[in-house]
Design a protein that fits this description.
Elements lengths: L6 H6 L16 E5 L4 H12 L3 E6 L18 E5 L12 E4 L6 H6 L1 H22 L2 E7 L26 H21 L3 E6 L2 E2 L10 H11 L3 E4 L5 E3 L1 E2 H13 L7 E3 L4 E3 H12 L5 E4 L14 H7 L7 H17 L6
Parallel strand pairs: 1-2, 1-4, 2-3, 4-5, 5-6, 6-11, 7-10, 8-13
Antiparallel strand pairs: 9-12
Helix pairs in contact: 2-7, 4-5, 6-8, 6-10, 8-10
The structure holds nicotinamide-adenine-dinucleotide (NAD) and uridine-5'-diphosphate.
The site of uridine-5'-diphosphate (UDP) has 14 residues, from helix 6 and strand 8.
GO cellular component, one term: Golgi cisterna membrane
Protein name: UDP-glucuronate decarboxylase
Pathway: Nucleotide-sugar biosynthesis; UDP-alpha-D-xylose biosynthesis; UDP-alpha-D-xylose from UDP-alpha-D-glucuronate: step 1/1
Length: about 350
């Protein structure tokens, strides 16, 4: 008798009973929303290498199918083009919910859709987690701390966010997404994880996504001036993507983690210093030019990663100079092939 014909099974939706009997317990069915994007595609690579079944749901707003090309022929891999603002029914054991534009020019392009993605998208994926009893991890952001008055930023800090500014669709969207996660946990017992990601960089970033590392590396490779916005004294802390993916997987698979966890590299640079490191890594002859600062730009950002170290046993290992060199190889190739991204 097909299992779904049993009305009790239909009511309880207990996916443990729907698992194919021949599947190894350590191999999971994992949904990655936003898996065609920069961080998502690196995460998918790792999960596929570990032998899991991976389903990617992505609208391809900023992501690209070519980021996942290597997995197309695998029977363990599936791609579904779908916007998470609409519900979707799947059977999964874990959900990594990354779908959301992340670079300022992407999330400001259609701010209402960004908000719908953060609220409705997260609501739909939490609903899926509730029905399937899947563990749910969301990639939140250091932007929930806004223009922080506490430095470095620890998870207990509530932030300093403008609710009506140009960045608010992203910052406030992620804040309400975190609230939704906690309400699904308290009200429905959904097993949630919140990663607060700090600026992450590496191969496969869209070349023209306007983020500082992709801009500087692209500019240096083309022999253009590096566009430092404002004085360049504002700070950020840059995490290489393989470190980031390690942190996300550890967070997903560590039992009994409560509260959000910062995942980022605590080595802090001014944007001027970043420009100098990019010059050293790519081309010492490029020049720097100064352009206007965008509204509400946070003046300083550096994660306190004590919790990630203590609870997950995680800390980043890739130095900025090494990460930039790895990224440069990818960017050179893509500039040569005319793959400029978005
Ligand atoms: P990205 O733009 O490369 O990836 C986002 C992916 O989500 C893309 O593939 C895009 O097509 C998809 N997407 C966007 N809206 C969607 C929707 N409504 N439905 C379905 N798919 C949708 O960005 P990224 O840098 O890889 O960021 C991934 C996640 O990490 C995001 O949630 C972002 O907020 C978070 N994050 C990233 C950083 C960073 O520095 N890269 C920092 C903080 C948080
Ligand atoms: N920035 C810059 N030049 C650029 C792009 C960004 O100086 O070409 C600065 C920007 O003003 C901000 C920092 O770099 O202070 C990080 O910007 P990004 O958009 O990468 O990420 P954010 O942390 O602001 O989301």
């Amino acid at each position: 008798v097909p299992i779904l014909d049993d009305p009790v099974e239909e009511r309880t939706h207990d996916v443990s009973k729907l698992k194919p009997p021949n599947r190894r317990a350590d191999k999971k069915r994992i949904l990655v929303t936003g898996g065609a994007g920069f961080i998502g595609s690196h995460l998918v690579d790792r999960l596929m290498d570990e032998g899991h079944m991976v389903i990617v749901v992505d609208s391809l707003f900023t992501g690209k199918k070519s980021n996942l090309e290597r997995h197309y022929n695998s029977p363990r891999f599936e791609f579904i083009r779908h916007d998470v603002i609409d519900p979707i029914s799947l059977e999964v054991d874990q959900i990594y919910h990354l779908a959301c534009p992340a670079s300022p020019i992407h999330y400001k392009y259609n701010p209402i859709h960004t908000l719908k993605t953060s609220f409705l998208g997260t609501y739909n994926m939490l609903g899926l987690a509730k029905r399937t009893h899947a563990r749910f991890l969301i990639t939140s952001t250091s932007e929930v701390y806004g223009d922080p008055l506490v430095h470095p930023q620890h998870e207990e800090y509530w932030g300093n966010v403008n609710p009506i500014g140009e960045r608010s669709c992203y910052d406030e969207g992620k804040r309400v997404a975190e609230t939704l996660c906690y309400d699904f946990k308290r009200q429905n017992g959904v097993d949630i994880r919140i990663a607060r990601i700090f600026n992450t960089y590496g191969p496969r970033m869209a070349l023209n996504d306007g983020r500082v590392v992709s801009n500087f590396v692209g500019q240096a490779l083309r022999g253009e001036q590096l566009t430092v916005q404002g004085s360049g004294n504002q700070t950020r802390s840059f995490c290489y993507v393989s470190d980031q993916v390690d942190g996300l997987i550890k967070l997903m698979n560590t039992e009994d983690v409560d509260g959000p966890v910062n995942i980022g590299n605590p080595h802090e640079f001014t944007i001027r210093e970043l420009a100098d490191v990019v010059k050293k890594a790519v081309d010492p002859n490029v020049e720097i030019t100064y352009t206007p600062l965008t509204p509400d730009d946070p003046k300083q950002r550096k994660p306190d990663i004590t919790k990630a170290k203590d609870v997950l046993g995680w800390e980043p290992g890739v130095e900025l100079m090494d990460g930039l060199k790895l990224m440069t190889v990818d960017f050179k190739e893509r500039i040569r092939n005319g793959d400029e991204g978005w």
